């Protein structure tokens, strides 16, 4: 099978755990573009950036950052991770990502979600009481925009559209890939499944194979709604880091991860303390964090694939303020060692045979 591996980044502006220094947004953007270029060169499938609306994150406009990457890359797909659709306008979201799709000649994707960080709701004038209803209606509108143009549509939570011309369309009028970000709640999985949309499952903790019931529920609900297995694709997304050895991966990533958990958590000033012992436990073969050598990352992906049967794994790199040089090295290892070994294993051949 063709298994995809990619990278996503939130563009954190976390303090250096040793010096206390912080990168500027411009410095972070330069690094993100360099990382995307390398990911493209080593054959990774997707580079994605998250969306936040507060000063400890650089990226509030993913489509703009991805457009800069599009100008410097040729093959890699470019995605949000996630677009907080509940507090955005689906018309504008479609226009922005269709523009990106044309700039990149058909490489744009969207992961849409309700948003685990909620600062965008009061910023853009939305009531958190409508957290779920807003997402459902806006997701349906986004898919209606995708399906037909011009569009006449009406809902409960925004003004109706009458013969609306939404432009540009996606590159060569293709269907713009839209994944639904799911954090592990059954209702979210069913929401994606009943609409026949692929699920991007965010796994931040627990066991490496602990979300099998959610994946099974997603596929069962999708099948009951009449959707094909080809429509019901699954991506696993979560924090990780890869270095030449397991010990190096821990030593490089832990200080920044712990700092990020303290600084960049959902509610500012209410961070979480992550003891090193707990970090190492989460990075163990049974844990959900993908921290280790290339061989260990390959083993975890394959173990997870046995449980989930998923088609894509996207690793969140740069958590906190992981050093840029080491992040580049991790991207290279993902592309040159992890990806070919995973694909060979799933195809039932050795890496020597696949070469």
UniProtKB/TrEMBL annotation:
GO terms for molecular function: monooxygenase activity; oxidoreductase activity, acting on paired donors, with incorporation or reduction of molecular oxygen. The keyword Lipid biosynthesis does not apply. Residues 6-309 form the Luciferase-like domain. One of its GO terms (cellular component) is cytosol. InterPro entries: Bact_Lucif_Oxidored, Luciferase-like_dom, Luciferase-like_sf. Pfam families: Bac_luciferase. Keywords: Monooxygenase, Oxidoreductase. It comes from the Bacteria. PANTHER family: BLR5498 PROTEIN, LUCIFERASE-LIKE MONOOXYGENASE. This is LLM class flavin-dependent oxidoreductase. It comes from Microbacterium tenebrionis.
